[in-house]
Amino acid sequence: MTTLPRQRGLTEQAADAAIDTACRLLRLPSIRNEFNEIADRAVKDQMTYPGFLAELLMTECDDRARRRSERRIKAAGFPREKSLRAFDFDANPNIDAATIHTLASCEWIKKSQPLCLIGDSGTGKSHMLIALGTEAAMKGYRVRYTLATKLVNELVEAADEKQLNKTIARYGRVDLLCIDELGYMELDRHGAELLFQVLTEREERNSVAIASNESFGGWTKTFTDPRLCAAIVDRLTFNGTIIETGTDSYRLASTRARVEEPAAS
């Protein structure tokens, strides 16, 4: 067992060494890295001893919270970084900023409610899906992002390897499951049934957020069994929020603007 020498009247160098060693033993990297700067500020601001200690401890707590958020965001498996701050609400008036910021509070996740983002390609569905998922991870929720086809392929492979229950349980445990690009490809009955099992596992227990380029009426092209299609739509909309992002592609409009700009000048 490692013990630190304890004596009065340490020199400044010995005190620094003792603090460094203690922070390593106690796993307080933020205090170890920022102690000198905070100590200098404490002298300048004439902090009390309790105030100085509080500053040190809050620095460690804040950094730990930040690292936990970073780990949750990484574990979610988002394909790229997207934020609400970076979204141009003026470019797509179909998406109400107030509604999105209300969703960012994550109350709907707390209530295990679903979210559906429906609209054409380039209208901001995936951006919203990733940004809201990131907000949830930052607030302490366990989040998982996946493409619809990737999820179905994983479920099919798990069924073949007799690991289906384990895989469904793993997807059932996260607080928010984000399924992107639902409706882009037709699913055979087996794949659709497996996806239905995941949704059933999560129904009214944990939230699901989806992004789809097809209106619900067009989902029969993805889920060819009408009854199964109706059951899936029911699970994804019951007590949920539906946001229609429209048909005008923001990406296409931006590209056109860049192409036309030189000609205009």
Architecture blueprint of SSEs:
Elements: H1 12-26, H2 29-45, H3 49-76, H4 97-103, H5 107-110, E1 115-119, H6 125-138, E2 143-147, H7 148-160, H8 164-173, E3 176-182, H9 189-202, E4 207-212, H10 226-237, E5 241-246, H11 250-264
Parallel strand pairs: 1-4, 1-5, 2-3, 3-4
Helix pairs in contact: 2-3, 3-6, 7-8, 7-9, 8-9, 9-10
Report on the structure:
This protein starts with 11 loop residues before the first helix and ends with a helix. The protein has 265 residues and is an alpha/beta fold. It has helices at 12-26, 29-45, 49-76, 97-103, 107-110, 125-138, 148-160, 164-173, 189-202, 226-237, 250-264; strands at residues 115-119, 143-147, 176-182, 207-212, 241-246. It contains 11 helices and 5 strands; from the N terminus they run αααααβαβααβαβαβα. The mean pLDDT is 88. The chain is elongated and about 80 Å long. α3 (49-76) packs antiparallel against α6 (125-138), α7 packs antiparallel against α8 (164-173) and α8 packs across α9 (189-202).
Whole-angstrom Rg? 25 Å
List unreliable stretches of 5+ residues. Answer: none
Element-by-element helix/strand order: HHHHHEHEHHEHEHEH
Portion of residues in beta strands equals 5-15%
Average predicted confidence as pLDDT: 88
Major sheet: arrangement of strands: 2-3-4-1-5
Helix content: 55-70%
- The CA-CA distance between the termini, in Å, is 74 Å
Structural class: alpha/beta
Please give the oligomerization state of what you see. single chain
The rough form would be described as elongated
- The overall strand count is 5
Number of helices: 11
Taking the sheet with the most strands, its summary is: 5 strands, parallel
